[in-house]
């Protein structure tokens, strides 16, 4: 797989932008958070999809038959401009056959601290923490 | 506006995830880049929408009547895992009444180096560069 990722993004009026790679349908992002998530929300959704993909992959290799994976992600922004993120917290809810706390925690740890390319692209001074909820 | 941003993200099978804030429609992200952009593409789209929103706002204040704003964003990933971004390049195409190179360059500079909250949340060792194209 190439080391380059390319997206094309077009302004759609107001603070709306539509874009994505050539290979897939595009995303709408709305800075006014009316028609779509805003850019800072979208960063959190990207981080969740990235770490979620890792968790799905790791648990499959651990012979877990995953039924549910839900993540709530909260980002705290600096009070002053440019109001970047200063901390990010995940609440991860997982259910699956063959799942136990050890497997779930290992998958979450590996994903959030090592594997997730989106989180690894963020400023390393942003603490990323998580809380784990196992459902039966 | 609150300093917290919160999104809820649900796994949709394979490597697909759907999520967003409570206030807007959600986004689909697909780690297989079939049904939607992947997480690393989505990070670039978020960066473009963020800096694009700044550019739109700055140019409006400079009395430019914007007709077009298109951005191509290329991110180079590290060869080794976790394959984070190591450089990001924007190609920004702008057209509008009252636009000149000075105004366009000032808006792009301010946005990419100072204002954009998504870019400011990235690792500061990732160089972000841009090329500007003015259309009449």
Summary keywords:
136 residues, 37% strand, 6 strands, globular, 3 helices, homodimer, alpha+beta
Order of helices and strands of chain A: EEEHEEHHE
Helix proportion of chain A: 25-40%
Largest sheet of chain A: 3 strands, antiparallel
- Tell me the β content of chain A: 35-45%
Q: What is the number of strand segments of chain A?
A: 6
Principal-axes geometry of chain A comes out as globular
The overall pLDDT average of chain A reads 97
Number of alpha- plus pi-helical segments of chain A:
3
> Largest interface, and how many residues on either side?
A-B, 74 and 74 residues
Quote the distance from N terminus to C terminus of chain A.
37 Å
* Rg calc of chain A: 17 Å
Structure description:
The structure is a homodimer of 136-residue chains. Chain A is of the alpha+beta class. The first copy, chain A, contains 3 helices and 6 strands; from the N terminus they run E-E-E-H-E-E-H-H-E. Helices cover 31% and strands 37% of the residues of chain A. In chain A, strands 1-2-3 form a 3-stranded antiparallel beta sheet, with no helix packed on it. The first copy, chain A, has a 3-stranded mixed beta sheet with strand order 4-5-6, covered by helices on one side. In chain A, helix 1 packs across helix 2 (101-115). The longest helix of chain A is centred in the middle third of the chain and has 23 residues, at 39-61. Chain A is globular. The relative contact order of chain A is 0.15. The model of chain A has no long low-confidence stretch (mean pLDDT 97). At the A-B interface, strand 1, strand 2, strand 3, helix 1 and strand 4 of A face strand 1, strand 2, strand 3, helix 1 and strand 4 of B.
């Amino acid at each position: 797989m190439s080391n380059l990722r390319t997206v094309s993004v077009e302004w759609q009026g107001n603070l709306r932008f539509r874009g994505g790679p050539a290979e897939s349908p595009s995303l709408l992002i709305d800075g006014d958070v009316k028609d779509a998530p805003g850019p800072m929300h979208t960063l959190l959704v990207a981080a969740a999809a990235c770490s979620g993909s890792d968790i799905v992959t790791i648990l499959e290799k651990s012979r877990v038959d995953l039924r549910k994976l839900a993540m709530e992600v909260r980002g705290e922004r600096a009070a002053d401009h440019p109001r970047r993120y200063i901390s990010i917290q995940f609440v991860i809810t997982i259910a699956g056959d063959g799942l136990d706390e050890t497997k779930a925690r290992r998958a979450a740890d590996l994903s959030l601290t090592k594997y997730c390319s989106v989180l690894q692209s963020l400023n390393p001074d942003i603490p990323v923490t998580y809380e784990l909820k196992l459902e039966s």
